[in-house]
Amino acid sequence: MSDKPRRTQRLRRTTRRGLRAVLSARGLRGTAVEVAWVTTHVAMYPLGLAEEKARAEVERHNLDGLPPVRRGLIIGDVEAAGTPIILVHGVVDNRTIFTLLRRGLRRRGFGRTVALNYSPFAMDIRKVAARLAELVDEVVRETGYERVHVVGHSMGGLVARYYVQRMGGDERVHTLVTLGSPHGGSSPARFFPIPVSQQMKPGSDVIREFDEPAPGCRTRFLALWSDLDQVIMPKRNARIVHPDLNARNVFVRGVGHMSLPVDGRVVHEICTTLAHLDPDGSIRTEGVTSLSATRPRPPGVPHQRGTTDRDVQPAG
């Protein structure tokens, strides 16, 4: 069979799976949430055009008046609670996409968050990655923390990964979380004739750079992806698959592309991950995990560096 019939068959299978996901009860709920959040986000968008006045929120050490969750994190690991978190939005967007995520992080005791607010007309992932490098250095200098966490949505995840993997940013970034980022490229990007879109198509020069060896990379990675993501095609390209990277891919059902930063399960997964600062940068659960049924690693089984392809199905 030639390549063209194979591609046609793959496209048909992908289309059928996508339709089943959208038309399921979970998919219909996720679509409704996506529409509601996009509407709200559009209304908030003008508020995020200006740069933030304060680079980082002030860390709070007084426990009076704090809810139990925040108090528990600060008492349990003051370093985890204080490690700065830098948020990087996607193309044609701004920091307001993280409004609810920031609120969730604060409620759980994380004291410092700051957003990189780059131009919606940015045309090069590498140039935005250079801006991120400058911001990381500034936050490290201002806070006194040697390392930070980064959360990137959509293209923001590629920007952060480029900084970590290709610009030596693993020396500064303890954990990189990506939400719906096209690590393997996204097919629809082919049809938008702008440079930054072409960088996000499968096989682009940037995507090929991600496949190059990355020995000794210190950063741990968490990539969240969904079967209802309208932007990433195929959906599995939002995973990180690299033998040299300490990566975990988490699959969450029924969440649209723009809704990933506001989904409660996603926020919980991010907070749980960032609350554990393992000294060697390792993660506590390997492989591909489903948020609907997380299976912990058996005691005594060490984490293996690199990415595995384990999909945990819901029980019952």
Q: What would your notes on this structure say?
A:
A seven-stranded parallel beta sheet has the order 2-1-3-4-5-6-7, with helices on both faces. It is globular and about 55 Å long. It has a single domain (3-290), classed as Alpha/Beta hydrolase fold, catalytic domain (Rossmann fold). The chain has helices spanning 3-23, 25-44, 68-76, 78-82, 99-107, 125-143, 155-166, 195-198, 205-210, 264-274, and strands spanning 85-88, 113-116, 148-153, 173-179, 220-226, 246-252, 287-290. The protein is α/β, with parallel strands linked by helices and 316 residues long. Helix 1 crosses helix 2 (25-44) and helix 6 crosses helix 7. Strand 1, helix 5 (99-107) and strand 2 (113-116) form a beta-alpha-beta unit. The longest helix has 21 residues, at 3-23.
**In the CATH scheme, what's the topology name?**
Rossmann fold
Broad CATH class: Alpha Beta
Q: Strand content of the residues, in percent?
A: 5-15%
Work out the helix count: 10
**Residue share in helix:** 25-40%
Report the structural category. Answer: alpha/beta
Write out the CATH superfamily name. Alpha/Beta hydrolase fold, catalytic domain
How many discrete structural domains? Answer: 1
Q: What coarse outline follows from CA principal-axis ratios?
A: globular
Biggest sheet features: 7 strands, parallel
Q: If strands are numbered along the chain, what order do they take across the biggest sheet?
A: 2-1-3-4-5-6-7
Low-confidence stretches: 54-63, 281-304, 308-316
Number of distinct beta strands: 7
